[in-house]
Amino acid sequence: MPISLTAAAAERIKSFIHNRGHGVGLRLGIKKTGCSGYAYVVNYADEVREDDRVFEERGVTVIVDKDSLGYIDGTEVDFVKQGLNEAFKFRNPNVKGECGCGESFTV
Q: How far is the CA of 47 from the CAs of 26, 27, 67, 76, 104, in angstroms?
């Protein structure tokens, strides 16, 4: 199952890339960290690497390295504003638990 974006997330990503002036899309991955084991990594993608998986969603190219894909396959990315705070939120069907602060997860 591919990575999906809500309309809010897609519009925010398009805006970021437009304001930056270059890039091929959004790079989404994970890294080992935090009290629960893994955290999401979100960056601009300036290239597609040989081991990347590429998804197109709502006019946005989402790039995931093959090692991260097993942990985040099926994830929906949303962009949420709550008062003065705004952030990408992840609905990952593979998550078995999260730390109290919500910054890291286990699969």
A: 10, 9, 17, 22, 27
